[in-house]
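Hi R.,

Here's the input for the zinc ion complex you asked about:
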Amino acid sequence: MTDPDIDGGRLWSDLMTLGAIGGTAAGGCFRPALSETDAAARALFRLWAEEAGMIVTTDAIGNIFARRTGSEDLPPVMIGSHLDTQMPGGRFDGVLGVVAGLVVVRALNAAGITTRHPIEVVNWTNEEGARFQPGVMGSAVFAGLLPLEEALSRTDRDGTRLSDELARNGIAGPVPAAPRPVHRYLELHIEQGPLLEAEATDIGLVTHSTFMCSGFVDIHGANAHAQIEAMGQRRNALLAAARLILAIEEVGAAVDPAGRVSATVIENWPNNRVNIPHLTKLTYMAVHDTAEGLADINARIRAAADAIAEATRTRIDIAPSHLRQATVFPADLRKRAADVAGGRGLTVREMMTLTAHDALSLAHLCPSALIFVPCRDGISHAEGEWCEPHWAANGARLLLGLALDQADRITEVNI
Ligand SMILES: [Zn+2]
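And here is the predicted structure with zinc ion in place:
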């Protein structure tokens, strides 16, 4: 029986080819969800999947499923991640998990291996949440965690509706975007942190995620003429925002490393140089290891906002939302992954994830595994993001072994 191996050279060339779609001069990638560059990357993924003999379908939110048939009509083992990037982002975040799935399927084809369960390589729509919020969107719709209509109604900063972009670039397909049985979900991703590289460990197996939430802050001041109104009379929403941004950062510093929080978005009205702003909106992103810790972060920010509102004579409304519960990944699948990795001479450690991934959505549907490989200096969501070719290949090698194990490789019987 042939023992299959992945083609590391092809893995690398596919990563570089996709990285050129929306590639930036600084070596990064600018490929927002549902943009023309995203559509081009999707078309190439579809072409590669069809070349590998897979059946490709797309659902109503644009998730693409490339299916390698199994010997039985069973729920599939899914391998996937996302092809969209931050604005700009790097060439590995998300892309690695999709391309590695294709590399796994090519390895099975080359070795003539059949599995009982089908294998589906998936590209989830809008994982990054850079252009349309919230992120992890396509997988959340698929897992039944986010209503399709709510996702379709989202708009970007220019007011473009997500549903219109799906239609304009011909991305949406006829398959219902709804839960269906999935046997296992396997996602390979760069760590987006420094631990694996620092320890020279090949593989990180994720045990659980943090609790996360965003806070949406509306600061109400009073519109006035910026050249006339006396300083003591001003109710400047932007001034209150500036103070609150600093206060949020101090809360983050006080709870680090168990939790972290920063203000990440600001919008201001009328945003006119001769007017005192009457409305400023902030968003912050908070994470913590525990639900109580996250509640404490929100409470500290609320208290700081009360003091700032009083001092600046503004009103500050805060709506913490999009609370994402911690997801715990099943230990038995992680143990299988560790065994497979050990059999291939790869070193492994367990770790948590600070960031959201599509695997957090899929974990609601089926036993799921989130597998990390190192990235240089822990840098991601940036043009300098980098994953060494052998780091990526190690991850794909584990993915192949785990897919064979979970999709139930059929052993030939001599007769
Ligand atoms: Zn990602």
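One thing worth noting: Residues 291-312 form the longest helix (22 residues).

Cheers,
M.
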